[in-house]
Amino acid sequence: MDVLHVILQILLGITSLLLTFLILLHKGRGGGLSDMFGGGMSSGLSSSGVAERNLNRFTIILGISWGVVIIALGLLMRFQGGDS
What we know:
Blueprint: H1 2-25, H2 33-36, H3 50-80
């Protein structure tokens, strides 16, 4: 069980870094604080190209797998007694 715990922790680290990287690759959709006060108008709010749609798909898939790894780690720690 310790090997599974280590593998899940490594997967969590890798998916966390990749998810952060993919989120930062997304195109900005607003002007930040100026949008909050009505100072900016964003023109295209939908995904424009194939690359953006693929980036969205990869991000969603990686986010779901990140959540599954966290749930698996939580269940493993709960049923192990939290020793390791």
